[in-house]
Write a structure and sequence with these properties.
By secondary structure, the chain is mainly alpha-helical. 75% of the residues lie in helices and 4% in strands.
Length: 191
């Protein structure tokens, strides 16, 4: 995203400079035409105001010099902006290449993770079949709702929902005398 923003900013800068340079060139062309027409009037003697015409030619020359200087400066700025645009495009290309490589690596890892997941799901199904019927229904209901199935008790509280677990349930579960569930989230309490 940063590379795209940099390319967009550089392209906008180039476009702005080019538009400004076009305007400068139009102005320059207008003053050159005006100077040449006035110079022609002076050369042919068709003007009654010789001093005013000479003054106008001098003013046009000053303005033309200023516009030519501005045009050169705009050309230098355009060159710098185009260099920045090329650098931004190169950076974007590097970012796109890195993104492609990261996606390829992720795809490779994804296949391995999916294979491991398939093995784990199959193992979970095999174990779930062995559960007594009294536990299988709540277990399947928790799995269906995508909830935590097994929880630890930390400092007397369920690690999933934070609900207080009675000490008697904790003791019975630790001594493997009974299987209990949390009152809050209905997850099975681990010994």
């Amino acid at each position: 995203e940063a590379a795209e923003a940099r390319v967009a900013a550089a392209a906008a800068a180039v476009a702005t400079i080019v538009a400004g340079r076009r305007q400068t060139e139009r102005e320059l062309s207008g003053y050159v035409d005006q100077r040449d027409r006035t110079r022609k009037l002076i050369d042919t003697g068709a003007t009654a105001e010789y001093a005013a015409a000479e003054k106008q030619v001098a003013q046009c020359n000053e303005i033309i010099d200023a516009l030519e200087t501005r045009s050169l400066e705009e050309m230098e700025r355009r060159d710098a902006a185009e260099a920045e645009l090329l650098a931004a495009k190169a950076e974007r290309a590097r970012c796109e290449q890195a993104l492609g490589e990261a996606r390829a690596a992720l795809t490779a890892r994804d296949g391995a993770i999916r294979a491991d997941l398939a093995v784990a799901v199959e193992a979970q199904r095999a174990v779930a079949v062995e559960l007594p019927a009294d536990y299988r229904t709540p277990y399947n209901e928790l799995r269906r709702r995508k909830r935590v199935v097994l929880v630890n008790v930390v400092e007397g509280n369920c690690s999933a929902c934070g609900m207080r677990v009675p000490p008697q349930k904790i003791l019975e579960t630790q001594k493997l005398r009974a299987v209990h569930t949390c009152v809050g989230c209905t997850a099975f309490i681990l010994p």
